[in-house]
Amino acid sequence: MSDCLFCKMVAGEIKPDVVYEDDAVMAFRDVNPQAPLHVLVIPRVHIATTNDLTAENVDIVGKLYLAAKQIAADEGVAEPGYRMVMNCNPGAGQSVYHIHLHLLGGRAMAWPPG
Ligand code: DGP
């Protein structure tokens, strides 16, 4: 998707602060962090929202979680704990339409979220 911000990162046209990448996913620090650790884990393939997940493409979601789990361990938040969340559509505050898993840690998390 030529007009997708995160596709431009995957293509190397925009260079975020990458903390992890493999053949399926890429992870980088959020430009507007909401916690001491705030990383976005994205698939290399373009999927606009979780409403677009299907039986054919859903395997990528497991890969996002495995990458986030590893990053949490590497960043030292695995034991105190962390939050992983995906927003879908405006009602949940999604602003970039390429699915991404937020990994948040390094502070206490409130529940319910805002
Ligand atoms: P969401 O609101 O769930 O769609 O999250 C989108 C996130 O993307 C938001 O936390 C801010 C982040 N973001 C937006 N633009 C950029 C950017 O250019 N670079 C980085 N690193 N993060 C960005």
Could you describe the 3D structure shown?
With 114 residues, the chain is an alpha+beta fold. It has a single domain (5-105), classed as 2-Layer Sandwich (HIT family, subunit A). The protein contains two helices and five strands. It has helices at 5-10, 59-74, and strands at residues 18-21, 25-29, 37-43, 82-85, 101-105. Strands 1-2-3-5-4 form a five-stranded antiparallel sheet, with helices on one face. A hairpin with a 7-residue loop joins strand 2 (25-29) and strand 3. The mean pLDDT is 97. 2'-deoxyguanosine-5'-monophosphate binds next to strand 2.
Order of helices and strands: HEEEHEE
Ends distance: 31 Å
Mind summarizing the main beta sheet? 5 strands, antiparallel
Q: Can you identify the CATH class?
A: Alpha Beta
Give the count of structural domains.
1
Average pLDDT works out at 97
CATH topology: HIT family, subunit A
Molecules bound to protein = 2'-deoxyguanosine-5'-monophosphate
Widest sheet: strand order?
A: 1-2-3-5-4
Using the CA coordinates, give the radius of gyration: 14 Å
Counting helices, strands and paired strands, the structural category is alpha+beta
Our count of helices gives: 2
